[in-house]
Amino acid sequence: MMWLVLLIVQPLLIKTGRAQLHRTIGKVSYVLGPLIIIFLFLIGRGAYLRFVGKAPEHDLLVPMVLDIRGFLSFAIFWALAMIYRKDSSSHMRYMIATGILAIGPGMGRGLINSFDVGFGNAIIITDLISLAIVGFLLGNDIYRKKNYKPFLVVFSVLLIGALLWQVRDSAAWQSFARSYAAMFY
Questions:
Q1: Number of domains making up the chain
Q2: Residue 129: is it exposed, middle or buried by C-beta count within 10 angstroms (0-12/13-18/19+)?
Q3: Of these four, 5, 53, 82, 144, which has the most CB atoms within 10 Å of its CB?
Q4: Domain containing 121: what range?
Q5: Contact between residue 79 and residue 91 where contact means Cβ atoms under 8 Å apart
Q6: Distance CA 36, CA 48 (A)
């Protein structure tokens, strides 16, 4: 929640001419960003370990797609936002991308609980919505001749994540996930 608060407060500070306060508060992200990455990894690890011996191996390895793509996507977008912190156009777009990642879990749960959408279909729908949002932002940047490269990177990362969800039952994914679990879990 603290990250989402930062994503709301920080642009308001820029808009109201408080760039120095923006930079001062922004230093929190140097601690909070890595903590989020670590916690996302630990959440995935905990979910896996909680069901070891209680569920078939296939059922343990399939949802790892979500955990791995979640923390890696956040790590990529956060790192790029920090690398481009002095290029406000790129920095802003990568920070927006970290917020877009928050759409999926909440919307997915809403689809599942309110509309009785199956888990797999909820993931597909939220992936498509996230891709549509970023696709719109990318198209808008291209049309307005703005810096479109950050949203192209974001779109590519989200597309790879969506494609990984589609191959979650494949032998290739199962093999990778098995190796990943043995190495990190």
A1: 1
A2: middle
A3: 82
A4: 2-184
A5: no
A6: 18
Place of tokens 């156009």: 89
For residues 32 and 9, what is the distance between their CA atoms, to the nearest angstrom? Answer: 15
Burial of 70-84, coded b for 16+ CB within 10 Å and e otherwise, reads bbbbbbbbbebbeeb
Q: d(Cα 117, Cα 128) in Å, to the nearest integer?
A: 15
CB 150 within 8 A of CB 90: yes
How far is residue 181's CA from residue 3's CA, in Å, rounded to a whole number?
Answer: 28
CB atoms within 10 A of CB 166: 14
Dmax (CA) of the chain: 56
pLDDT digits (tens, 9 = 90+) for 110-150: 999 999 999 999 999 999 999 999 999 999 999 999 999 99
